[in-house]
């Protein structure tokens, strides 16, 4: 079974690359296969509801 991974940041101070690296490492260590081999991401504030799909 493949797993979907999603990492979201909501402030400019947070870094997508660090979170993606941690998720990818965790999946490799636990033999979890990611769907399409990637981590999906979002970088929007919680106040902005006009978001792209």
Helical residue percent band: 25-40%
Tally of strands:
2
Cα end-to-end separation = 25 Å
Number of helices: 1
- Strand order of the main beta sheet, please? 1-2
Low-confidence stretches: none
- Which structural class fits the helix and strand makeup? alpha+beta
Shape estimate? elongated
Residues in β-strands, percent: 35-45%
* Helix-strand string: EHE
Q: What is the typical, i.e. mean, pLDDT?
A: 84
Largest sheet, if any? 2 strands, parallel
Radius of gyration: 13 Å
Describe this structure in words.
This protein has 53 residues and is of the alpha+beta class. It contains one helix and two strands. The protein has one helix at 16-29; strands at 2-9, 33-43. It has a two-stranded parallel ribbon with strand order 1-2. Helix 1 links the parallel strand 1 (2-9) and strand 2. The longest helix has 14 residues, at 16-29. The N and C termini lie far apart (25 Å). 0% of the residues are buried.
Annotation keywords:
about 55 residues, alpha+beta, two-stranded parallel sheet, elongated
Q: Quick recap of the structure?
A:
The chain contains 1 helix and 2 strands; from the N terminus they run βαβ. The chain is α+β, with helices and mostly antiparallel strands and 53 residues long. A two-stranded parallel ribbon has the order 1-2.
Which helices and strands occur, and which strands form pairs?
Elements: E1 2-9, H1 16-29, E2 33-43
